[in-house]
Amino acid sequence: MPLELFSLVVDDYDDAIAFFTATLGFDLVEDAPSQTSDGRPKRWVVVRPGDGGPGLVLARADGTEQEAVVGRQFAGRVGLFLRVPDLDATVARLAEAGCELVRPVRAEAYGRVCVFRDPWGNLWDLLGDAA
């Protein structure tokens, strides 16, 4: 039973799409009009890594409760893990996008890793191959 999708609350659909596609190289696989449970317009936006792994539903915050969790969905812990083919190139793109490198690149038994903060404040482990 593979995990298909999970939601990430963001403050703006288009900014999130730009970050995930241009900076991280994800594919935009869905961007369609939808409605909230009470009939207000929203969008159904899904991005997915190029390898076809689990996708992210980019869910725009709706109301003060959801706005309060933007960037804090994981309570200050690393909550997302992304393995990339070229760690150094990805770190460079993240820096260009203004992302903070919270913990520098280090070598571990499973490969090189660093932690970055995305534009909303979520922490990610960025995983690469051994040096």
Give a verbal description of the structure.
By secondary structure, this protein is of the alpha/beta class. It folds into two domains: 1-69, 2,3-Dihydroxybiphenyl 1,2-Dioxygenase, domain 1; 71-131, Signal recognition particle alu RNA binding heterodimer, srp9/1 (2-Layer Sandwich), CATH 3.30.720.110. Helices cover 21% and strands 43% of the residues. It contains three helices and eight strands. The chain has helices at residues 13-23, 64-69, 87-96, and strands at 5-10, 27-35, 41-48, 55-60, 78-83, 100-108, 111-117, 123-127. Strands 1-4-3-2 form a four-stranded mixed beta sheet. A four-stranded mixed beta sheet has the order 5-8-7-6, covered by helices on one side. A hairpin with a 6-residue loop joins strand 3 (41-48) and strand 4.
Provide a quick synopsis of the model:
This protein is α/β, with parallel strands linked by helices and 131 residues long.
Mean pLDDT equals: 95
**CATH homologous superfamily (4th level) name of the largest domain:** 2,3-Dihydroxybiphenyl 1,2-Dioxygenase, domain 1
As for the number of domains, it is 2
Structural class: alpha/beta
What is the CATH-assigned architecture of the largest domain?
Roll
Annotate the secondary structure layout.
Blueprint: E1 5-10, H1 13-23, E2 27-35, E3 41-48, E4 55-60, H2 64-69, E5 78-83, H3 87-96, E6 100-108, E7 111-117, E8 123-127
List its traits.
single chain, about 130 residues, alpha/beta, 2,3-Dihydroxybiphenyl 1,2-Dioxygenase, domain 1, Signal recognition particle alu RNA binding heterodimer, srp9/1, 2 domains, four-stranded mixed sheet, 3 helices, about 20% helix, globular
